[in-house]
Each structure stands twice: as structure tokens, then as C-alpha cells.
Write a structure and sequence with these properties.
11-stranded mixed beta sheet, 26% strand, 4-stranded mixed beta sheet, 15 strands, globular, 309 residues, 10 helices
């Protein structure tokens, strides 16, 4: 079982409009709602790939109930979300059909009380006992300690469970020091962590700070990976227009599935880039186009890179 942690779950709502214009009224042509938050997106992709996945984190209020209702019945996915008093947030993605661009609006999460955080820690340690890997994903809701991910990384390492960390800011900085197996920042998050805007130098610096392997998302340029086994760039065949919401989460699912299946790093990166690009092609946030994924796996290029001085 792969365990995904989403401390700031969300109900993802996607609106489609003909053309998004500031200071104007818009007629929405389609509305789609899906359970969201980075780890929930990762879990849905992993389940679609045939893995058994357990989702944990927090869920509360009417939005939390809507998320849990929509998770029920998903093949391969188990709901282990911890209930809280506050209401789970919503995220709004507005897709401009004319340009293909997406505008994202993210609500804040609920206030997490100390007793709720303690209940989550108890559940997390219990779930680690049956996990082959764990993904710690996304932002922290109010009330959760800024060092939460560092603590969760240490608990996973204590039980011998490999851990992937995908967050940003101070939670990432503290989490890296706890020595996760993989981190997956984007270029901005990596620059904030290291102070360097050169992706290769920054990725290597992130490894020196504690991460065993670093896979940096470079947007339409694909992924850059620095690992103990080597350094690679993995790129899609071309820039793909569409909704990028959840694309990075699909890349995490590709990396995690490759980890538990013990496939070589270049194959993991091929899978991650193909899934990420196929997610951009999907009309729904956080899901991937299966046919596009199978096609793209043969079109992703993975090349070795020389270390920075």
C-alpha cells in the first residue's frame, strides 16, 4: 500500500468559460468538482495505475463530506482522512477555452486544533505500518506546526518507509533537513530553498541540505533529477496547452510508482513526465488522459547531464 498525506485537502472546482476577461461577467459552459489537494490527486493517479493507495489528512464540514463521498467507491483507494471541526477549503480553476490558459483561486484551509493534530499523528503512525512508501504533499493548514513535515519524515524513516516530500517555503526547508528520500520542488520553490536560480546548482545544493534525491519540475521543460545513481533531464516532446492543475501531482505519482516497482531512474522520469503532460491534456483537474499517457511514454526524452562545478 502507498500512503499519501494531504494536510490541506480541497474540493477542486473547474469552471470552463469561452474567454476569461477582467471586470466582465462570464457564462460558465461546464462545472466539474473533484476531491483535491496534492496528495489526493497523487492517490487518484496511483489508483488509476493499479496501485493500492490510502489517503490520509484532514476533512471537515460540508466540503469535507463532499470529498469523502466522491472518494468512496474509487477502485484501489482507501479513505483514512481524519475528521476536523473546521470546513475543508475549495479551489477554483477557471479554464479559458480560447487561450487554453487556467486561472487558479485557492481558499485557505481550516484551523487545526492541537487535539486534531494529535489524532492525525496517531493515525499516521498506524498507517505507516502497512505502507510501502509515503508521499507528503502540499501546504499546511492553519494550526499545524511549521515543522510538521520534518516530523512526519522522521516518523516514516524510523519505520523504514521511503518518503517523498512535495511542499514549499519553510515547511520544505525544515523537511529537507529531516532527510527525505525524494523531494519534488518546482523551479521557484527550489530557488527559494537554495537561493540559486540555476536549476542544476540548486538541485545539487538541495541534496547537500539533506534530500537523498531531488527531482525539480521545470514546467514545460520537464524534470531535472539529481540522485545518487546519476543526473538526468526528462522532457516532453512539445509544449502542450491545457489545464496544468494537478500536473505536478501526476509527476509525483509517476515517481512513487517507479520507486515501489524498483524501476531505474530514467524509466521513473519517463513515466513522471508522460503522466504530467497527459494531465495537462485532461479536461478535469488532477486526472490524466490515458491514451495520451500511453502515447507520450514513447516520446519523452531522457538525457544525462554533467554536474555543475
Amino acid at each position: 500500500m502507498i500512503l499519501t498525506v494531504t494536510l490541506n485537502t480541497a474540493l477542486d472546482i473547474t469552471y470552463r468559460v469561452r474567454s476569461l476577461r477582467p471586470h466582465a461577467s462570464h457564462r460558465v459552459s461546464e462545472v466539474v468538482e473533484r476531491p483535491g489537494g496534492k496528495g489526493v490527486n497523487v492517490a487518484r493517479v496511483l489508483a488509476a495505475l493499479g496501485h493500492e493507495v490510502t489517503v490520509t489528512g484532514f476533512a471537515g464540514g460540508g466540503t469535507g463530506r463532499a470529498i469523502r463521498d466522491r472518494l468512496t467507491g474509487t477502485p484501489g483507494l482507501t479513505d483514512a482522512l481524519v475528521p476536523v471541526a473546521g470546513a475543508t477549503r475549495r479551489t477554483i480553476a477557471v479554464v479559458d477555452e480560447l487561450s487554453g490558459d487556467t486561472t487558479q483561486l485557492n481558499e485557505p484551509g481550516p484551523q487545526i486544533e492541537p487535539a486534531e493534530w494529535g489524532a492525525f499523528l496517531d493515525r499516521y503512525e498506524e498507517l505507516l505500518g502497512g505502507a510501502s512508501a509515503v508521499a507528503l504533499c502540499g501546504s499546511l493548514p492553519p494550526g499545524v506546526p511549521v515543522g510538521a513535515y520534518a516530523n512526519l519524515v522522521r516518523l516514516a524513516r524510523a519505520q523504514g518507509v521511503p518518503v517523498l516530500l512535495d511542499t514549499s517555503g519553510e515547511p520544505l526547508r525544515r523537511g529537507v533537513a529531516a532527510r527525505p528520500d525524494i523531494i519534488k520542488p518546482n523551479a521557484d520553490e527550489l530557488a527559494e530553498l537554495t537561493g540559486s536560480h540555476d536549476p542544476l546548482r540548486a538541485t545539487q545544493d538541495a541534496r547537500r541540505r539533506g534530500a537523498h534525491a531531488v527531482v525539480a519540475s521545470l514546467g514545460t521543460d520537464g524534470l531535472l533529477a539529481v540522485t545518487p545513481e546519476g543526473r538526468w533531464r526528462a522532457a516532453p516532446p512539445a509544449r502542450i496547452p491545457g489545464n496544468p492543475t494537478g500536473a505536478g501531482d501526476s509527476a509525483v505519482a509517476g515517481l512513487l510508482s517507479g520507486l515501489v516497482e524498483h524501476v531505474p531512474w530514467p524509466d521513473r522520469l519517463t513515466r513522471a513526465v508522460a503522466l504530467s503532460t497527459a494531465t495537462v491534456r485532461s479536461p478535469v483537474a488532477g486526472e490524466f488522459d490515458r491514451a495520451a499517457y500511453e502515447e507520450l511514454r514513447g516520446q519523452v526524452t531522457v538525457t544525462g547531464v554533467v554536474s555543475a562545478a
